Amino acid sequence: MSHTIHDKQKLLNRVRRIRGQIDAIERALEEEKGCMDVLQQITSCRGAMNGLLTVVLEDHIRTHLTDAEPAEDGEANAREQLIEVVRSYFR
Question: Is-above-0.85 flag for pTM?
Answer without folding.
Answer: no
